[in-house]
Design goal:
3 helices; alpha+beta; transmembrane; calcium
Length: 173
């Protein structure tokens, strides 16, 4: 409906992204319209010295109380992630990340991989906007009756995907 639902503020060290975009942690504070923190997204430090980094994100609500995780499943060619609940039990994998002419998307599948329970998409805005701005447009879709905590974890997955594939620092460029 176009209403503002959340505001998000990244809380990371000032040099984190400039030193090594892979080897750093970040915290994102998600606030409601009254500016109260309702969700915290925590990406721990990941070392890539001599090993392949595996990315993860912890979703907390209230802050300090983990409600779920987004874990990268290492694959040499494809982006693959798993959604986990607060007990680190798999709820569903992200799979089938695809790139179409103007949309990049990933599906969140049920554990048995027979049905789609959510979708994350990035709307490409054209060469000028992509090249000269840092703004991104993402869409999240999931059933109305999906558990609210899993919806929050899917939201966290959106930010992890953005960080891994669409954020660029001077060192990366």
């Amino acid at each position: 409906m176009g209403n503002k639902v959340f505001g998000i503020l990244e809380d990371s060290e000032c040099c984190d992204r400039s030193i090594c975009p892979v080897e750093h942690s970040f915290i994102m504070n998600v606030t409601d319209i009254s500016n109260q923190e309702v969700i915290r997204l925590v990406r721990p430090f990941v070392s890539c010295c001599g090993t392949t980094p595996v990315f993860q994100l912890e979703v907390q609500n209230p802050p300090g109380n983990p409600i779920g995780y987004v874990m990268q499943n290492w694959h040499p060619f494809l982006p693959k992630f798993t959604i986990q609940n607060e007990r680190k039990e798999s709820v569903g994998p992200f799979c089938e990340c695809k790139c179409c002419s103007d949309v990049i998307w990933g599906m969140v599948m049920s554990l048995d991989k027979t049905s789609v329970i959510g979708r994350i998409s990035k709307q490409l805005t054209g060469f000028e906007a992509e090249a000269f701005t840092d703004a991104d447009n993402f869409g999240l879709q999931f059933p109305m009756d999906l558990d609210a905590e899993i919806k929050a974890v899917v939201l966290g997955g959106c930010f992890l995907i953005d960080f891994m594939y669409f954020e660029h620092t001077q060192k990366q460029e």
